[in-house]
Backbone:
């Protein structure tokens, strides 16, 4: 009997330990950071803006509103520091709760700061046990990160989701922007044969009006956040923007093209045809001749006809071939102009160096030293192959009937 | 020695879980970068060769543990002294593995809980298992084996279906030639974890069907070796060489990258369970062997009496072993393999085998087999 009592005593004394209460933090004591905006500081090195979700204001809209004035779904706090740790310690002066980073899914860096260098902010983000390195990074083009993070948005109540979802949808349908995580960024920074490229976001309208509840009560937003352009980095500094015309070519070369539209002239009419390229594959191999490196870029893609504003005979294989050929030429043009503009920046965002390292490790050892210069003078050959597959639910366009 | 019998199935589960234990957490030779997995595979092959040494010793004395036949091979007192050193070695390794897992917990999920507390809890459960005897431990490992396998396979499928595998990260293969790979495999991946099979010299006498010991142990080693290699390949292919070498626990970083269907994500905590099972078995086996060895050396009839004291010793050793994690790891990579693993796992067993061979040869020469 005595033994049984003793074991009961041991069991009871173990119970409080099993709850894992040592680390306990109540939900109401946490401030969930949804987005982080980092600007160049006025007094100290960085101004950091924390976008924090206000849980009660997010859900009430869906249930029909339980009375009382609704506040915005987020609040932002701003603090400054010479490094991120200092800033996040300083912000506790303003926030009544403990900051919790595990749900942060977007990091906005202002262009101004990016031009001076972003290397100093990355270690904290990678080392922190709460912060996820799967967080997406974007650059606030022509804007302060603070303004982007503080803007209220429609459709997606929590603005940080707006960033992510916009980025994801434009990446999968237009292909001018790509989603870059902190992990991707770091792997490009540490690799000697690759430079990072990050999507830009910009604010259209007035930053002041964006912070007001008014912004989401109007059908036409006074301030709108949109994905815009790709930023090219070199040695951890922003060295330039690719521009709208060159972004798509870069995404082709990065092998991250999911779908995009390709427009071209048809029988004398400007931009009469639009094809959608769906599946695509980019392969880059290298040949070395007399010490000169040539990149052989092979792009293959499956296209469908999306729109044609000219007479067209769909059953005629020659016309189809012409369609494929013109799409190829158009893609080739885009890729070519993209390479040229990137070569001017002398930053190998396509990871050609990394590919050479994998394909010709011995050669890479020799050219590693001034790779970015070699990249700028590199030759390339682009081959695009397109395969036509489908044309929606019509055969010949109605234009064929009009013209007859 | 306690009177316990374990089945071959249980032996297999023990071998696999023990080998995978902490190797799947920290057993990747990061200095080889993208070729780390080759060293893991090579280490397995060398480990199997080494296992034949232990197996031959077991064949000479199928009913005695290491501490028992040491006295037969090199004489009573030298055998006892060497046996004592082996016990200390096992206890020390137990403390090392305990510290590995304590650090894992305290640096990833229990960031504010003192590490001593975490290790005490882990140690309490293990001490309880050992108090119940070796058969219980074997049965527990049989149960855990199923859980570990379900989690390993589901993790594998999740990682692949998240599209995280970039096999081009493994290229270029054998960039700096075979020499560094062989060197590292001998120093690191042979001794940790495959050379640690030396623990089983203390446990094999418990096995019910002694004929199958060889097949079961070697197939267990091959399975765990392949698992570790797959884990290494997945880690490198998912994280890329830079992040792989930079992260303290590559497998955990890999799992944290799983993002599927917008809701299957952040699975680290779930997989911590998988890692802890391996850790549990590994600490428990080293611990048990230290207890059983002490019991046989100092002629305790009931090894349960010395269970707790040794457990406390191991716990305290784990605390004072290193001031911080990176020193612990550096010791584990640079000092322990050369000054502890090589003598205790490779050199001494080989010498013992030679002596045992000569002795038994003499014996059979003197008195021909009936």
Residues:
């Amino acid at each position: 009997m005595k033994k049984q009592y003793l074991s009961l005593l041991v069991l009871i004394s173990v119970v409080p330990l099993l709850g894992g209460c040592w680390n306990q933090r109540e939900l109401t004591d946490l401030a969930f950071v949804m987005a982080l905006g980092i600007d160049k500081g006025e007094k100290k090195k960085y101004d950091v803006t924390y976008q924090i979700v206000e849980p009660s204001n997010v859900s009430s809209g869906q249930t029909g509103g339980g009375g009382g004035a609704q506040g915005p779904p987020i609040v932002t706090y701003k603090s400054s520091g010479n490094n991120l740790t200092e800033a996040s310690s300083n912000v506790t002066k303003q926030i009544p709760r403990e900051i919790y980073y595990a749900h942060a899914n977007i990091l906005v860096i202002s262009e101004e700061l990016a031009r001076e260098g972003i290397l100093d902010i990355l270690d904290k983000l990678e080392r922190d046990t709460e912060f996820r390195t799967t967080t997406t990074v974007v650059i606030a083009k022509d804007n302060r990160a603070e303004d982007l993070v503080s803007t209220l948005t429609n459709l997606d109540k929590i603005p940080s989701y707006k960033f992510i979802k916009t980025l994801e949808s434009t990446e999968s349908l237009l292909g001018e922007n790509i989603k870059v995580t902190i992990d991707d960024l770091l792997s490009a920074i540490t690799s000697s044969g690759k430079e990072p490229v990050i999507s830009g976001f910009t604010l259209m309208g007035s930053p002041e009006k964006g912070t007001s509840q008014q912004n989401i009560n109007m059908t036409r937003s006074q301030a709108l956040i949109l994905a815009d352009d790709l930023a090219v980095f070199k040695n951890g500094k922003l060295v330039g923007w690719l521009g709208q015309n060159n972004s798509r070519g870069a995404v082709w070369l990065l092998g991250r093209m999911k779908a995009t539209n390709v427009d071209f002239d048809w029988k004398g009419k400007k931009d009469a045809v639009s094809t959608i390229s769906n599946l695509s594959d980019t392969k880059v191999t290298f040949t070395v001749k007399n010490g000169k490196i040539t990149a052989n870029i092979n792009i293959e893609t499956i296209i469908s006809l999306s729109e044609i504003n000219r007479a067209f005979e769909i059953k005629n294989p020659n016309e189809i071939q012409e369609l494929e050929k013109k799409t190829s030429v158009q893609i080739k043009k885009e890729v070519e102009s993209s390479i040229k503009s990137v070569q001017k920046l002398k930053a190998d965002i396509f990871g050609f160096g990394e590919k050479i390292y994998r394909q010709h490790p011995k050669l890479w050892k020799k050219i590693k030293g001034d790779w970015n210069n070699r990249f700028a003078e590199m030759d390339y050959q682009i081959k695009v192959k397109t395969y036509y597959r489908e044309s929606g639910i019509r055969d010949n366009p109605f234009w064929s009937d009009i013209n007859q | 020695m306690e009177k316990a019998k374990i089945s071959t199935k249980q032996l297999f589960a023990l071998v696999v879980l023990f080998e995978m234990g902490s190797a799947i957490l920290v057993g990747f030779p990061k200095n080889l970068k993208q070729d780390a997995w080759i060293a893991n595979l090579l280490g397995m092959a060398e480990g199997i060769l080494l296992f034949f040494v232990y197996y031959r010793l077991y064949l000479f004395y199928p009913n005695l543990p290491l501490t028992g036949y040491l006295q037969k091979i090199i004489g009573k007192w030298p055998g006892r002294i060497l046996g004592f050193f082996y016990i200390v070695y096992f206890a020390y390794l137990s403390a090392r593995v305990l510290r590995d897992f304590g650090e894992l917990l305290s640096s990833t999920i229990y960031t504010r809980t003192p590490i001593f507390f975490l290790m005490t809890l882990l140690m309490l459960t293990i001490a309880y298992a050992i108090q119940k005897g070796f058969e219980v431990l074997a049965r527990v490992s049989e149960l855990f084996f199923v859980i570990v396998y379900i989690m390993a396979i589901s993790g594998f499928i999740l990682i692949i279906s998240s599209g995280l595998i970039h096999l081009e990260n493994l290229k270029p293969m054998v960039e700096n030639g075979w020499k560094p790979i062989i060197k590292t495999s001998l120093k690191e991946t042979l001794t940790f974890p495959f050379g640690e099979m030396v623990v089983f010299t203390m446990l094999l006498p418990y096995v019910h069907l002694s004929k199958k010991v060889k097949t079961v142990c070697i197939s267990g080693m091959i399975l765990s070796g392949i698992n570790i290699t797959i884990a290494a390949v997945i880690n490198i292919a998912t994280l890329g060489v830079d992040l792989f070498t930079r992260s303290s626990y590559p497998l955990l970083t890999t799992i944290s990258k799983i993002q599927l269907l917008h809701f299957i994500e952040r699975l680290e905590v779930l997989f911590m369970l998988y890692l802890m099972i391996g850790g549990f078995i590994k600490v428990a086996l080293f611990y048990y062997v230290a207890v059983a060895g002490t019991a046989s050396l100092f002629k305790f009839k009931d090894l349960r009496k010395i269970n707790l004291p040794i457990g406390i010793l191991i716990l305290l050793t784990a605390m004072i072993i290193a001031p911080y994690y990176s020193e612990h790891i550096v010791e584990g990579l640079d000092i322990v393999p050369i000054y502890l693993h090589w003598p205790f796992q490779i050199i001494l067993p080989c010498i013992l085998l030679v002596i045992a061979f000569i002795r038994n040869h003499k014996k059979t020469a003197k008195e021909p087999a009936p």
User: Anything to note?
Assistant: Chain A is about 35% helix and 30% strand.
